[in-house]
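May I ask for an example protein's residues together with how it folds?

___
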Amino acid sequence: MRACIEACWNGRTFTASPGHFDMFWTRDLGFSVPSLIRLGHGLRVHASLAYALGVWDRRRRHITTTIHYFDRPGDVYEYGVDSLPLFLAALRAADATDLVERHRIWLEAEIAHYYAQVVDPATGLVRSDRKFSAHRDTVVNRSNAYGNTMVALLAKTIEETGWFDSPFEHHFEGDYGRLLLEHFWDVDHFRDALGDETVSGEANVWPFYTGVVADPALVAAALGYLDHHGFCDPYPLRYETERRPEREVWLTRHLLPDYQGSTVWTSLGAMYLQVLRTVDPSLAATETARYVDWIERDGTFWEVMNAKGQNWVSPRWVLIGEESMLWSAIFLDALENLHLVPAYLSGRASRGARSLRPERNGPFGPGRTCDIVLDTATGSRRRPGGRNGMDIALVHGSYLGSWCWDLLRPELERLGHRVITMDLPISDPGLGAEAYAAAVDDALVGTKDPVVVGHSIAGLVIPLVAAHRPVRRLIFLAAFLAAPGLSANAQRGTEPIDGRIPPTTAEWIDLGDDVWMVGPHTATELFFHDAPAALARWATQRLRPQAYRALNETTPLQAWPAVESRSIVCRDDRALNPAWVRTASRDRLGVEAVEISGGHSPFLTRPVELAQVLDSLAR
């Protein structure tokens, strides 16, 4: 996908693709900009925006959907209801205030022109007496949910940046989703257009991807509707589940039937996956894995796909769906930045470690902000929880890192907890369990009576944390339970600790100084055997070398701390023997282990179920 993005750069601007659409497309660049910036393309984004502004301003043209060869602006096929909203959102995401100041007069005139052309001044809705170009630019668009989302996005961008006087203020008064909800929301989904009961994929993604509507309950309802009504088959996301030829423009209806009807559009699919992970990380992981499978199968990122999940081709091969789309950046961003909030269109994008503050109504209360803070120096991440939430520290096991909690974290946060993770110094041959415990202790600064969860080898670590500071409870997740006076490897020689199903491969790589790396096949067999193939690949690509000092040293634990403890056993664990976990939990902790299905890494394969179990055990 990085090659796809690179192929869309022509030396002075991003194009929509390197083939059919190798020219500047306002829409395609606009909705991809936040992800492009997070992927490191900020300078090219700025150059692209400067290029387009220069062409329109110099030629004294209104903003257009496209700039064709030889710098000729043009609309496909009508004035774009989304051109100015997406372009200003891109300027905001790129923090391009220099371009705003340089072209202020032109931009102010464009805002006035847009309001006159698009908005009904009596209602604030998109005018229904004319047609507009939109995301589906080969069908007839009038006053639909997509267009009204664009008006709300433009109003939101203008008013929140303070760049210009807003002609929209009296229509929204700060509630940018109000008109959409009043005129298009129907129980559990958005209708596509005024006076039309038809449901479309774009109507139920764009209000959330723009940040115009942010209520998680509405997000969950709308995306659930799409999932249950066939919009994600064969892949996310179809515009509609059945073709409506009466909506297609004449040329499309006869030469490119169903080009933007019941087909799968990957631009919409990538946005859908960005939004989905905020309300259903487990389903998002599954759908993302299915996307990865076809990308690896075909070696590109298609524009549009047919009902068989293959590249779309028109009758008589008039047009073949394009490849290497610029908007592949949205999917790549979702794949690589699970720990960050989605790259929505309402805000300034950033590559660096920073607090991302999306305003939302959810478990943190109406109007409150929900911060994700990533410290790149320590790898620790935390997010404030709800009123009744607790501090829950998640301590990873061998070969892993704080990334392994990326699917579990949002599920715990949804239950109101504050989540703290960290990267243990597992690759340093001179450090053992005490140093690991110190890293946990450092990450817990500012917390009060945290619940500390230790996975796998972290079972050697979290009792030491309890010896250093007060903790509310220890939870051992498929974890090693130390025997004072012995090393972990000595225990393995006397107790039936290792998994009962040995791996068929032996990819153990000696890096020297008793530091080892596990290869992807062995890691998958031991740790991720029940994960979807693409998710297992994602995990194995992030593994880190493990120094064995923590396993070879006599445990620093002299006696079990006097703190309440719980244990979770995974029935299908292949790294630790489930029977041993049950016995050791009784003998050393005095508790019966709580049982869950699955293998050694339930935080990846069963994040929703695991969050509910942890919530129950933590309280």
